[in-house]
Amino acid sequence: MSPTTQKETVRLCTQALEESDVVFVWLDAPDAYGTLVELGYAKALGKRIIVAHPPQTLIRTDETGGDLEERDDMWFAYSIADVEIAAPDAKAAWDMALPLLESPHALLNA
């Protein structure tokens, strides 16, 4: 990818995040560097964040972050989310997230 294309990609991604109300991320690879940067940017903007991932890790069980010693190296990305979903694939995770997105108060109370 050329430097010009890279700059345009960054511009478009940050613009989309700035215009969003909620950010949904399927995070199934530890080398998803762009996605991790986008998560941090979304958090800094105060966006509501849903992070979904394969179920090989424990999900948060309480507001304090739950049981971290058995989580994989992506624990920090999971922990900044407002909602964390463990699902077998991105489609299943999206289906689990939809009810939260359809109700204006559901995500606030999740």
Question: Quick gist of this model?
Answer:
The chain has helices at 3-19, 33-44, 75-79, 90-102, 106-109; strands at residues 22-26, 48-53, 83-86.
The proportion of residues in beta strands is: 5-15%
Query: What's the number of helices?
Result: 5
Tally of domains: 1
With strands numbered from the N-terminus, the spatial order across the biggest sheet is 1-2-3
CATH third-level topology: Rossmann fold
Which H/E pattern describes the elements? HEHEHEHH
The CATH class: Alpha Beta
Count the E strands.
3
Helix content: 40-55%
Oligomer: single chain
Arithmetic mean pLDDT: 86
Secondary structure class reads: alpha/beta
CA(first)-CA(last) distance? 39 Å
Polypeptide structure, described:
The protein has helices spanning 3-19, 33-44, 75-79, 90-102, 106-109, and strands spanning 22-26, 48-53, 83-86. The chain is α/β, with parallel strands linked by helices and 110 residues long. It has one domain: Rossmann fold (3-Layer(aba) Sandwich). Strands 1-2-3 form a three-stranded parallel beta sheet, sandwiched between helices. The termini are far apart. 18% of the residues are buried.
What is this structure's SSE topology?
Elements: H1 3-19, E1 22-26, H2 33-44, E2 48-53, H3 75-79, E3 83-86, H4 90-102, H5 106-109
Parallel strand pairs: 1-2, 2-3
Salient structural properties:
110 residues, alpha/beta, Rossmann fold, 5 helices, 3 strands, 46% helix, 14% strand
